[in-house]
Every structure is written in C-alpha cells, then in structure tokens.
Amino acid sequence: MKQFLQLIVFLFFFGIVTAQQTDYVDFKSIDANLNLSSQLKSVNGMYSVEFEILKDVDSIFLDAKNIQLKSEVWENTGIEYTSERPFGERVVKSIVKDDKIWFYDDFKGGLIIKLSFVYECIPKKALYFVDDQIWTQGQGKYTSNWLPSIDDVNDKIEFDLSINHDNGYEVLSNGKLIKKKIGKEYTKWTYDMQKPMSSYLVALAIGKYDKKTETSKSGIPLVYYYYPEDSLKVEPTYRYSKQMFDFLEAEIGFPYPWQNYKQVPVKDFLYSGMENTSLTVFSDGFMVDSIGFNDKNYITVNAHELAHQWFGDLVTATSGEHHWLQEGFATYYALLAERDIFGDDHYYWQLFENAQELITQEEAGQSTSLLNPKSSSTTFYKKGAWSLHALREQVGDSAFKGATKKYLNNHQFGNVNTSDFISEVEKSSQQDLSVFVNDWLTEVTLPEDAIVKSLKKSAFMREYLAINCEEYSQKCKDYLVSNISDKGKIKVVSQISEHLEAEAFINNIEVRQAIAQYVSTIPKELKLEYESLLSDKSFVTIEAALYNLWANFPEERIKYLQKTKDIKGFNDYNVRLLWLVLHLNTIEYQTDNKQVVLNELIGYSLPEHHFELRMNAFNYLKLIGGFESESIKSLILATTHHNWRFSKFAKDLLETLKTNNQYRELIKQLKNN
Questions:
Q1: Contact, 482 vs 508, CB < 8 A?
Q2: Can you list the alpha helix ranges (DSSP code H) found in 413-503?
Q3: By the 8 A CB rule, do 629 and 670 touch?
Q4: By C-alpha distance, which of 459, 462, 440 is closest to 450?
Q5: Which of the two ends of the chain, N or C, has the fewest CB atoms closer than 10 A to its terminal CB?
Q6: For residues 391 and 400, is the Cβ–Cβ distance under 8 A?
C-alpha cells in the first residue's frame, strides 16, 4: 500500500515536470510578510501566491530550497478570516519534496487561485547575513533559497514584500515603499511592485545607511544610499548618475519601466553589481573619494546595471543561449552612456580594449559562439557589445534605434530570444541580416578585419595604432611633449621607459601614472621629478612611486615613509599596506614601533574587514613570512567565505603555506582545535 501511494505521488509530480509548468499555470503575484533574524540567520513569515490555471492540471509547484512549511496550505476564497482559519476556507494538499513545494488538487483551466501558508528557512545561499547587513543575490543563486518562487526566468511575477526588522536600519526592496510602521523594537517596511519580473531579480538590502535623492528629467526618483561615515564619498561615487539615467532614457527611446531607481553598496558582495529590478546592489569597494575616483570609479558598473533595467529586467532572455541580449546590451549601452560623458575617444578606446581581450581569448583557444550558453563573460559582455556596435554601423542610427524601441515595446515585461531582436532590425532597416548573424553571433572566430576597419574610423585610434616606439628614436621622445593623445603617450612610455627625460613628467595624471608603473629603475637625474609623483591625486600612482623610490634610494626611505604615512588608498588600503611592509623593512625607521606595525597588518586580515582588504593583507603576510596563529585562523575561516573568489584564494594560499613545515604544523593544530 505504501509503495502504491508513493507511485501515485510520483505520477502527480511526473506529469507536471515532464511538461513545462508554464504551459499549465501562470503565476501572477507573490505577497510575503517576512521576519529576518541575523542571530539565527533565518527567514520566516506569511506567504501568498496567486496564479491562473491555463489548462486542467492535478499538481503545480513552487521552487523552495531547504524551506519548511510551518502551516497547512489554505486556498483563499474571499471569506472572512478567523483565528481557526487564518488564511481562507479550504486546505489544499501539499508536500515539500526535491526542493519544491507541491500543491495537488483538481485545478481547472481558467481559474485564478490564491494559496497562503507560513514557511521558514535558513538559506544556504542567495541571502547573506554579513555583519549587520543582510542582502540578496538571486542571479545564479536562486531566490527560491529564501523565498518560494519560480526559478524559471520565463514566468514573470509581481512581488510585493513586507519586511519586519530591528529599528535603526534601512530596509530596501524592489518597487516603491508604500508604508513604514515603526514599533517599539521593530519596523515594518512594505514595498509595492506594479509590474512583473523574473524571480532572480527579487532583492533585499538591509543595513545602516543614509541617502541622497535626485529626480530624473522624466520624474523618476533616483536614490543613492551610502554608509553614514562615507558622506564625502557620495558625490565621487555617484557622479554622473542622473546624467546617465537621462541619457539612457532618451537613447533607448522607451521610458524607464519601474517606479523608482535605488542603488545601495554592500559589504563583500559576490560581483561588482547586480541589476535587481529598481534596486541595484553593488560592492562597497566602489565607494570612492575624489582621489580614488581617478583610478577606480563606479561609472561603468553604474551605467551597466542601469541599462539592465531595460535589457534583462524589462525584457529577459528565454535561456542561456540568448544571454547576450542582456549582458551584451547592458555593456553596449553603458559604453554609449560613457561616450556621452567622456567623448568619442573614450568610446573607441573601450572598444579597442574589449577587442584586445577578445583576441587574447581567441589566441588561447577559448573563443565560442555568442549563442553558446556556456560562453565566457568576455564573450557575452564584450563580443555582445561589439556585435551591437557593428550592427548599428551597418544599418544606421535611425533603423537601429527604431528597432530597439519596437523590440522593447513588443516584448515588455516578457521574454525574448535573438530572433525577436534581429527580426525587428531587419524590418526597420529593410536589410537581410543573415551574414551579420553568421559573422558576429554564430561564428566562433572573431571578425578581426571588421573590428580593425571599424576602429580606424576614429582619428584617435588611427593615431594610436600608428605609434610604434619599440625602436627608440628622437621622434619617440618628441611624442611625449606633443599634442598626441594621452593613450598614445602611455604607449610611448611603455616602449621607451629607459629613455625618458624630465619633460615627460609634464603631463597629466594618466601619463604620469604610466611613468610610475613602467619606470622602476629611476635615474638619479630624474629623482626630483619622480618624487613629485607621490603628490599626484592617484592611489595607483602613489603606490607604485612609493615602492620604486624606496627601492632605488635607500638613503631617502624615511623621507618617503614620512610623506605617505597618512595615506590609506582604496578600500583595500593598497597604499597603507605597502607602507606597513616598507616600514617593517626599514630598520632605522621607528625602531620601537615594529610590533605595532606588524599587528596592524595582521589586523587587516581579520573577518571584520572587507574581503579585498583581507586578501591584500594575506598576500603581504605571505611575502614577509608574517603569518602567526591569529592570521592563520582568519585564513582558515576565509576558506568558507560566501564570496567564492575569496574562499578560493584562501584555500589556495592555505595549501601553499602547508609546504612550509612550521606553518603546516600550526595549521594542523588550529584546525584540530
């Protein structure tokens, strides 16, 4: 009998799994009232889902990984709720199996049904508790790890979330905040979405933030969040945000499709940024001051994630085969936004760098078709952007923009494949694009001749490509005091670094940075000019110049350390950590302070710091042989960090340390304890 019942249940499941669930049911909305516990790292709450039955079916499911039902499932029928029946009139059979919640009943086509229940989970991924922050990453991790939903990107749902959390925090989610109810200990934040989206775009970000607000030309609220201690970083970090928003709305030709646009930095994020609908989450490593802006700013990521609000969020690729419709478009439109800010030369330089990366990939035998779902990020992002650039050149601005607008209009809040876009461009341009599709989308090999031809349409690129100083001549020295582009001068510096003269230092910050990076052996006659690099508004320049000056002029080491003792650098403290190591290796400098300096370096490896700072500290500790029990404990903990790049780094470094007998024994002892 037991085996027979199991067979019945299996057949229920099998019927829906062997066909696409989207053929039988259309999920309309999800409403959840959630409690998040940082102490327990758990989520629980009341949950309702509304769906339309398209065809008769006996079972449907929600994806729900490691989720437990804490109540029966009730069908809401519109009757008055009671304490005995808090969700509705009728219990619907349910079972949690294979990372899904299954509901089985005699579901009739044409009916709209609403089910409610209470659930609880301790997410293993997709929702992260990091110090006093809580934030999500749905793409590639699945929102269903913390919120029952649909992993299939082709079923778009309207999500309305209410979050109960401790007072004193900002709680952000998709859509518009329509209610904020403050209690004695907790605040309830209620967000409303008006349009559907794929489940991977659901987002939460909870932390201690202040905010700055602007309004776009079209009236969309633009909200920039930041840590209270980072008030001086707000303008450099979010610089050009409104300009890029207004530009993209005009360039794309389709109004921004959501109620508002919010951006929030978080600690130890998995990627640079994530384009959650109306709420971009990005790494707080991009929060920069006015000096950091010159070397490492948020502009490209900012523009890329913003472009995704149309390409990815409004229209979503049906499958990985068409992923370029999201990443290629976001990369291309980010390039256009930067072109609007920095000009044509910047645009063509970015295209050139992207082409170089693609060629390197091809030379390594790693090229793939743009339509291969297993392609690299380089292919999806950079070849995708190049393909759109080439297509626009071929069909013209008017046809390209008209087709893009129709493509978005016809498929808004839906799913798309490559032919949906190409067919619109063919109609708009009245061209057969089969050759283009073959050369740029299907073919594995890069169309290098077409790439070079396109780049040479830029006078700036023609000049750059013509410069060749691998054989030194007077002409090359003259380049550095001429009116050629800064990129051209940097190319010259890289090729004749041993022949530079004082006049080369009379250039702007970018060229001077190249001098700091390429000139590691400093002629005595250039010492004064080289020392001036320590005053540049560039943390990259200062870091390189400090090390090179310290190495070349031992008698001046104390002077260089004194000049740079208060500079931290980026959020990974690139200048400060170098300074600490140089301090430890300058015996005559602050001799009584060495242990304090070493302790500071070790301290930066501890879990309370950003993972990039910790990586930097670990690398320096390895370099100087400075690991001890506290830093090795921290390294062992890092092997289980949620950021995969950092955990891999920690595992690899730990294996390297084990080749040292002293470290191997210490690691063994600490692991056993």
A1: no
A2: 418-429, 434-436, 448-455, 459-466, 474-479, 486-495
A3: yes
A4: 440
A5: N
A6: yes
Q: Measure Cα distances from 50 to 67, 115, 248, 643, 649 in Å.
A: 19, 7, 34, 35, 44
- For domain 317-461, is the CATH number 3.20.20.70? no
Strand pairing of 315-317 and 414-416? Answer: parallel
* pTM confidence score: 0.94
In the chain, ranges of CATH 1.10.390.10 domains:
209-310, 317-461
Q: Where in the chain is the domain with CATH 2.60.40.1730?
A: 1-208
d(CA 367, CA 365): 6
C-alpha 495 chain-centroid distance: 35
Pairing of β 133-136 and β 127-130: antiparallel
- Give me 341's structure tokens: 């800010």
* Encoded tokens for 409: 């209009």
Contact (CB, 8 A) for 148 and 77? no
The yes or no reply on domain 209-310 and CATH 1.20.210.10 is no
In angstroms, rounded to a whole number, what is the distance separating the alpha carbons of residues 338 and 340? Answer: 5
Mapping DSSP onto H, E and C, the string for 126-193 reads: CEEEECCEEEECCCCCCHHHCCCECCCCCCCEEEEEEEEEECCCEEEECCEEEEEEECCCEEEEEEEC
d(CA 192, CA 185): 23
Binned average pLDDT, 10 residues per bin, the chain of 673 residues: 43 51 95 97 97 96 97 76 58 96 95 96 98 97 97 98 98 99 97 98 99 99 99 99 99 99 98 98 98 98 99 98 99 99 98 98 98 98 99 99 99 99 99 98 98 98 94 86 95 95 94 98 98 98 99 98 98 98 96 96 97 98 96 97 97 96 91 82
